[in-house]
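[Automated response] Your request has been received and processed.

Submitted sequence:
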Amino acid sequence: MPVIATFFGIVIRMYFGDHPPPHFHAEHRGEKATFNFRGDLLIGNISSRTAKRLIREWASGHRFELMVNWRNVEQGRPLNRIEPLD
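Generated structure:
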């Protein structure tokens, strides 16, 4: 599963051949969750409120790049790295 971003101990990935709706996977301190492109938690759990806030902030600032990557996932093309939060 390709890593598309890493920041503040958070790893963001997308799976090839994944199912709709468009989403990404995040991992923080061994906890895993799935988020939509607004940064809303869909499934799983990341207990850190700070990590969830950072994921939401990152996702909302990179919606276009996330959609481009989702199209790449659907078409089996390589994924692009997305800039992390500073």
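Summary generated for your ticket: Residues 3-75 form one domain. The chain is about 30% helix and 25% strand.
If you did not submit this request, please reply to this message.
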